[in-house]
Design goal:
- The complex is a heterodimer.
- By secondary structure, chain A is an all-alpha fold.
- Chain A has helices spanning 3-29, 34-39, 45-55, 61-73, 87-92, 95-122, 127-141, 144-158, 171-200, 203-210, 215-233, 235-253, 258-267, 271-299, 301-311.
- Chain A contains 15 helices and no strands.
- Chain A starts with a helix and ends in a 5-residue tail after the last helix.
- Chain A is 78% helix and 0% strand.
- The longest helix of chain B is centred in the middle third of the chain and has 37 residues, at 84-120.
- Chain B has twelve helices and no strands.
- Chain B has helices at residues 6-15, 24-41, 43-46, 84-120, 122-137, 140-151, 155-164, 167-182, 185-193, 197-233, 245-252, 261-288.
- Chain B has one domain: MetI-like (MetI-like fold, Orthogonal Bundle), CATH 1.10.3720.
- The chains are: A mainly alpha, B mainly alpha.
- At the A-B interface, helix 1, helix 7, helix 8, helix 9 and helix 12 of A face helix 5, helix 6, helix 8, helix 10 and helix 11 of B.
C-alpha cells in the first residue's frame, strides 16, 4: 500500500476519534441536567447548585468542552456519580471479563463458521449447502435474547444442567458463549461461503485443474488461502457485532463485564461510566477498522493501488 | 442426487414454478410477512381483550394445548392475568410499526444524503463520506442505548433513534450509484435539456437505483426489528404500559420457570418475522440485483 494512503487512513481514524469525543460530549452533556437527574426535581436549589459546581456542569458549553478535552487527554474521565470511584478504573477492571467472553466466542465462531462455509461452497447447490445455509439464516435471525431465553429454559430450568447466571467456573461460560457465538458463526459461514464461491470461479482455479492438479490439492493450495483475504474485511463488522452482542448477553446472564455495566450505567444516568464505555467501544472499532484496512492492503497489493487511484477522486 | 438426474429435476422444478419466479421459501415468507402486516393493522379487531386488561383471578393460566388451559386465554395469561394472545397482537402492531417507520426514516435520510453528496460533490461529499465512515465505526446499539437513556424514553424519540439505524448503507449505495448515473447518457442529456437537480435526481435517477435501494431496505428491516426488540427487552426501549415484542419477552423472562409461554410466544413471533423478511429479502436481492449479493 502506498505510504500516502496509509497516512490518509491513519489521519481519518484520528479524525473519527475526535468526532467521537465531540459527539459524546454533545450527546451526554446537552441532554439534561445531571444534578437534577441525580437528586430529583424536588431538591433544594442550593443543593443542586452545589452539585453542579462539583460536577463542573455550571460553566458555559465551550468552556465545558475545552475542559472535557483536556481531562480526557490526561486520562481523567471523571468519577462515577454513584460510588465516586474513578470511571476509567471501574470500566477497565471489567474489560478482561468481557474480552474473555469475546475471545472464546471468536474462537468458537471461527472454528465452526469457516469450515461450515467452506463445505457449503464445495458442495454448492447440494443438500449440504442448503442445510448449512438454512441454519445460517436461522442463526442470523435469532436475536441473542431469544437464544438466551431458549437456552435457559431448556438447559437450566428444565434439565438443570448449567447455571443461568453468574461468573466464575467454566460452566458459567457455556450459555453466554453459545448465545453470542450463534450469530457470529452464522455470519462467518455465510461470508466464507460467498468468498469461497467467488474464488472457485476464478480463472486461476481452472488453470490449476487444467494443469492436472487434483481437486483437493487445488482447493487446499489455491482456493483456501485466497478465501482468507476477503474474510479479513469483515473483522470490523465482527468486532462491532460482538460489542452489541456482549451488551445483551452479559445483561441476561448477569456476567459482570463491560456490557452489563453499560446497561446499568445507562439506566442510572451515570454519565462518566457511559462516556468511558462509548469511547472504549468507538476506539476499539476505529483501531480494528484501521488494522483491517492496512492488513487488507498488505495482503492484497491490488487493493492498495486501487485506493491510491480512488484518492485522486475518480471512483467512489 | 446423482448428476444424471439433475436436468430432469431442474425441468420439474421449472414446471411447478410459482408466479413472479417466487421460490417456496420466499412465498411462505411473504405470506408470513403479509400476515404480520394484517395483524398489525387490525390488532384492535383481532385482540380478545385490551392489552393492559388485568384479571387477578386468572393469573398465569397456561395456553389451551396444555393441561388447565381454556379458550378464555388461548395463549395463556401472564402474571397480572393479562391475555398473552391479545398482548401478542398489540405487541406485533407496535414492533411492526416501529420497524416500518424506522426503516423508512433511515432510507429517506440515507438516500437524500447520498444524493446531496453526489450532486454537490467536494466539501459536502467529503462530509457525507466522513459521516458514513463515522457511523460505521460505532456499534449502533451502543449509540442508541446512550441516546435513548439520556434523552428519556418517549416513544417518538425511540422511533427516531431506531430510524437513524442503517442510514449509512442507503447513503453509500445512493452516492455510488448516482455518481455512476450522472456520467451516463440519459443524465447528461437531461441536464443539457435543462432539467433541474431535483427533477433529475427524483424523477430519473431514483427509479434507476430503486432496485438496489429496495434490496437494501428489505435486508435492513430485520436488523431494525432486532434493534427495537433488543432495546425493549433490556427495558430501555418501548416502555410499559406500551407493549412491544421485545419488552414482552423481557417481562416473561422472570416467569420462565412457571409460565414459559409469556416469553416464548413473542420470542417466536420475532424470530419468524425476521426470518421471513430475511428469506424474502435474499430472494428479492437475487431477483432485482444479483450483483449486490455478497
Amino acid at each position: 500500500m502506498p505510504f500516502r494512503v496509509v497516512i490518509q487512513k491513519v489521519l481519518r481514524a484520528l479524525l473519527t476519534v475526535v468526532l467521537l469525543v465531540t459527539t459524546v460530549f454533545i450527546v451526554l452533556r446537552l441532554t439534561g441536567d445531571p444534578a437534577v437527574a441525580l437528586l430529583g426535581m424536588e431538591a433544594e436549589h442550593e443543593v443542586l447548585e452545589e452539585l453542579r459546581r462539583k460536577l463542573g456542569v455550571d460553566k458555559s458549553i465551550p468552556e465545558q468542552y475545552i475542559a472535557f478535552i483536556g481531562e480526557i487527554a490526561n486520562g481523567h474521565f471523571g468519577r462515577s456519580y454513584l460510588d465516586r470511584r474513578d470511571a476509567l478504573t471501574t470500566v477497565m477492571e471489567r474489560v478482561p471479563r468481557t474480552l474473555m467472553l469475546m475471545g472464546i466466542t471468536m474462537v468458537v465462531a471461527l472454528a465452526i463458521g469457516i469450515p461450515l462455509g467452506i463445505s457449503a461452497a464445495l458442495w454448492h447447490g447440494k443438500w449440504l449447502d442448503r442445510g448449512i445455509m438454512t441454519l445460517a439464516v436461522a442463526g442470523f435471525c435469532l436475536p441473542g435474547f431469544v437464544i438466551a431465553i431458549l437456552l435457559i429454559l431448556l438447559l437450566s430450568v428444565t434439565w438443570g444442567l448449567l447455571p443461568s447466571t453468574g461468573f466464575g467456573t467454566a460452566k458459567h461460560l457455556v450459555l453466554p458463549v453459545i448465545t453470542m457465538a450463534t450469530h457470529e458463526t452464522a455470519v462467518f459461514a455465510r461470508y466464507t461461503r460467498s468468498a469461497m464461491l467467488q474464488v472457485l470461479s476464478q480463472p486461476y482455479m481452472r488453470t490449476a485443474l487444467a494443469k492436472g492438479l487434483p481437486w483437493p490439492r487445488a482447493v487446499r493450495r489455491h482456493a483456501l488461502p485466497n478465501t482468507a483475504i476477503p474474510l479479513v474485511t469483515i473483522g470490523g463488522f465482527f468486532v462491532g457485532s460482538m460489542i452489541a452482542g456482549a451488551v445483551i448477553t452479559e445483561s441476561i446472564f448477569a456476567w459482570p463485564g463491560v456490557g452489563r455495566l453499560f446497561v446499568t450505567a445507562v439506566a442510572q444516568r451515570d454519565l462518566p461510566i457511559v462516556q468511558v464505555i462509548i469511547m472504549l467501544a468507538g476506539v476499539s472499532m476505529v483501531v480494528t477498522n484501521l488494522t483491517v484496512d492496512l492488513l487488507y492492503g498488505w495482503l492484497d497489493p491490488r487493493i492498495g493501488a486501487l485506493l491510491a487511484k480512488r484518492m485522486k477522486g475518480t471512483d467512489r | 442426487m446423482s448428476t444424471t438426474t439433475d436436468r430432469p429435476a431442474l425441468a420439474r422444478a421449472a414446471a411447478r414454478r410459482l408466479p413472479f419466479g417466487l421460490t417456496w421459501g420466499a412465498a411462505i415468507s411473504l405470506a408470513w410477512v403479509l400476515l404480520m402486516l394484517i395483524v398489525a393493522v387490525s390488532a384492535r379487531f383481532l385482540a380478545l381483550y385490551d392489552y393492559d386488561q388485568i384479571d387477578l383471578r386468572g393469573r398465569l393460566q397456561p395456553p389451551i394445548w396444555l393441561e388447565g388451559g381454556n379458550w378464555r386465554h388461548p395463549l395463556g395469561s401472564d402474571d397480572l392475568g393479562r391475555d398473552v394472545y391479545s398482548r401478542l397482537v398489540y405487541s406485533i402492531r407496535t414492533s411492526i410499526f416501529v420497524a416500518i417507520i424506522g426503516t423508512m426514516i433511515g432510507a429517506v435520510i440515507g438516500t437524500s444524503l447520498g444524493f446531496f453528496a453526489a450532486h454537490f460533490g467536494r466539501l459536502v461529499d467529503e462530509a457525507v463520506v466522513m459521516a458514513i465512515d463515522y457511523q460505521a465505526a460505532l456499534p449502533f446499539m451502543i449509540l442508541a442505548l446512550a441516546v435513548v437513556a439520556f434523552f428519556g424514553n418517549s416513544l417518538y424519540l425511540f422511533v427516531a433513534v431506531v430510524g437513524v439505524y442503517g442510514w449509512e448503507r442507503y447513503a453509500r449505495i445512493t452516492r455510488g450509484m448516482t455518481l455512476a448515473a450522472l456520467g451516463q447518457g440519459y443524465a447528461v442529456a437531461l441536464k443539457v435539456l435543462g432539467a433541474g437537480p431535483v427533477r433529475l435526481h427524483l424523477r430519473h435517477i431514483l427509479p434507476n437505483i430503486a432496485g438496489a435501494l429496495t434490496v437494501c431496505l428489505t435486508l435492513t428491516f430485520p436488523h431494525v426489528i432486532l434493534l427495537e426488540t433488543s432495546l425493549s427487552f433490556l427495558g430501555l426501549g418501548v416502555q410499559p404500559p406500551q407493549t412491544s415484542l421485545g419488552n414482552m419477552v423481557g417481562f416473561g423472562r422472570d416467569y420462565l420457570l412457571t409460565a414459559w409461554w409469556i416469553a416464548i410466544c413473542p420470542a417466536m413471533a420475532i424470530f419468524m418475522t425476521t426470518l421471513a423478511v430475511s428469506i424474502f429479502g435474499d430472494w428479492l436481492a437475487d431477483r432485482l440485483d444479483p450483483t449486490l449479493r455478497e
